[in-house]
Design a protein that fits this description.
Length: about 120
């Protein structure tokens, strides 16, 4: 909850943005193919992680997808961000791993080489 906005994630994979002034939904985002397992938001964006193994960045005001943040995993357990970096806890090949991602999209060469 932030000011007059609440963001929730559901077992249906949706992320909803609510106005606490009117108690009505502002956006309903078809965010994930399975349950939303973690989310965080600030004044500009929403970061959601799902049991489908995907982490997505959304524009809070418009509800549009900005981009997918990481390569798909087996499942995402936790997302947390501050400023321009996001920490993702996820399951990959039966191990829990931690990844740190910048919100700025990587250059094409960096992404192919695995650098973050």
């Amino acid at each position: 909850m932030r000011n007059s906005t609440l963001v929730t994630g559901g077992s249906d994979g949706s992320v909803r943005v609510w106005s606490l002034n009117t108690y009505t939904p502002i956006h309903r985002l078809a965010a994930h193919d399975n349950s939303v397992t973690s989310l965080q938001f600030d004044d500009l964006r929403i970061v959601s992680g799902g049991h489908d193994g995907r982490v997505k960045i959304w524009d809070l005001e418009t509800g549009t997808l900005i981009r997918e943040l990481s390569q798909p995993a087996e499942a995402v357990w936790r997302v947390a961000f501050e400023s321009e970096r996001c920490v993702v806890m996820a399951s990959r090949t039966t191990r829990t791993i931690m990844e740190v991602w910048d919100f700025t999209p990587p250059a094409e060469d960096d992404e192919r080489s695995g650098r973050r």
